[in-house]
Amino acid sequence: MDRIPRIALMVTLGCIASFGLFGNTVSAQTTLELNGSNQIIGVKGLDVNGTLYDVDLLTSPRIFNDIWPSHPNPSPAPTFWGNETDAQAARIALNNVLQAQGNDPYLPAGPTLNLDGGKYCYMIPFDVGTGDNVKVQTGYNRHFNNWHYLEAPGQGYALESPSSTNMDSKCNWARFTPAAPQLKPTTDEDLFCVDETTTVNIDLSGIEDLYGYMLKVNYDDTLVSVDSAVFDYGFFDTNDNGSTPPSWDAVCATGTCTFAKSELHPEPAVSGSGTLAKITFKGLVAGEFDVTISDNVLSDIDGYTIAHDIAPLPLTVCGWAKASGTVSLQGRATPKGTAPSDPPGEVTAYDGFFALSTAPYSGAIDPDTGDWLIENIRVMPGGTEYTFDAAHSLYLGNQTTYTLNPLDDWDAGPTRLLGGDANNDGTDDISDLACIGGDFGGTPSDCGGTGSSDINWDATTNIQDLAIAGGNYTKGTPQPW
After folding, report:
1. What does pTM read for this prediction?
2. N or C: which end of the chain has fewer CB within 10 A?
3. Domain range 319-480, its CATH number among 2.60.40.10, 3.40.50.300, 2.60.40.2550, 2.60.40.4130
4. 252 near 229, Cβ under 8 Å?
5. End-to-end CA separation in angstroms for the chain
6. 215 near 292, Cβ under 8 Å?
7. Which of 100-109, 412-421, 469-478 has the lowest mean pLDDT?
8. Distances in whole angstroms, Cα of residue 105 to Cα of each of 56, 108, 114
9. What pLDDT sits at residue 2?
10. Is the pLDDT of residue 156 over 80?
């Protein structure tokens, strides 16, 4: 299948770690590669036992020789090809990334594997030291621990398991290639609002023999300001014995931060992965932008540049809005009525995005005026649709939706709640009429544990309460605003 175009999709650590099914770790950010049909065709920067690999998921028939070109000693070869335990670790690492794409931890949703029907199936070969015989680790639907033997003669291979004779044409072959060093910004919070902050790490992974670096980090200074920019010495430690050009000493101005460091003799070169610097941004105006890296050079001790990949980091600054309005109650001059101790009402606002991490916003209905106000509502730069619910005891709730934009001060206008829900179950039905009828002409009593037969809250149950409930019989929550 055509592998062009490739689309990069960033998967955050929080999403992947939430599964944790197999006990292994993944890098802070792993890039999925998708084709034009939103199918996963590769994974960049997969961490297998501390080594990063770029993985291609191949579907062409008889592709085995393409990923095992000089069996039994391919070069370059993934380190895990030498033994069964490490091959299993490679399978688990790939499983964790793929499973993080869907709510079902076994079958990916959204981006699918490059297969008919989006089946979850791929194979990882490794040498078992028996001539041309090769063993593979497979992930196939819910059978992650299946073992399959296959032969690898010069013209291809054949699966020995009768139940898996067609897996060569129905499965992805996972081709692992040692990844180039990666220099990229990462963060745990890629969405933050105006006046809030997020910290971006400048991370370097898979490097060998690093002795010095220089780089620029670019950002949109119309949307964010820099609260702080510092070197991180946990990985490339030049705090006590290093050299820094003055104008590159974590200096930030006009949308660019500059960083440069070099080790000094007798310090050794550094290999591995870690964080070079940290920048804390503060939101100024709602909008979207990419944090990018430019003018970057990685050098060894001999002054030779070290080839590496870079990647951008999309950030979103959300804004704030507020909403207000007035609620009146059928049969009452004011929301509190004339009797004491009427439970207050409220208006709540919720959405389908921020609700994942934020409780619904709410504003109390003033018992004297019916006015309500909700401030500091988070909204995306292009607007966020909120659902507003007006609720009050003994009354059916009203509902409306509205798309709030940053800096909006939305007036929802007046809305009138219909009465008669004596037991507060969201409907006006026979149970409400029965409770009101039972107290008719006398002192109000409790209905349903939280309600009352006194709908208009005037300290008596009479024809006014029964008329309100009767006029709204069979109606339920929500009613139109």
Report:
1. 0.74
2. N
3. 2.60.40.4130
4. yes
5. 52
6. no
7. 100-109
8. 21, 7, 18
9. 32
10. no
